[in-house]
Amino acid sequence: xxxxxxxxxxxxxxxxxxxxxxxxxxxxxxxxxxxxxxxxxxxxxxxxxxxxxxxxxxxxxxxxxxxxxxxxxxxxxxxxxxxxxxxxxxxxxxxxxxxxxxxxxxxxxxxxxxxxxxxxxxxxxxxxxxxxxxxxxxxxxxxxxxxxxxxxxxxxxxxx
Length: 160
Fold this sequence. Notes:
By secondary structure, the chain is mainly alpha-helical. The protein has helices at residues 2-10, 16-68; strands spanning 122-124, 142-144.
């Protein structure tokens, strides 16, 4: 009888208290790590937003530079050389005085806003107020995120 009880004590396994302690520790670690993971994901989305805004603004600036240099053809009277809309940046353009193979395209595709998951960028024209969220429709002078959320830096995404 004594040998049987000694054998039972030497068998492997966890007590209920040990299992509960491990579960509690895992729960605490999970609750601590979850906000950190969310923060890292949000930082990555913000980096993607910055890159998308830079890409769009660079394309608008290049279009303006080419237009000011007279490489995009004749200008309409009163034109400020900004694209009419973002889709204009997708179209291949034949440069004035250049061979046919020297077409230029300012964007291959309109990037998706990582905050809204759509290509629904807010637009500003040259005539709009700098802090306006309404696009007058004359041209595209600037772009901004249409998200109503605020960044980790405390600045709304629409003001980036």
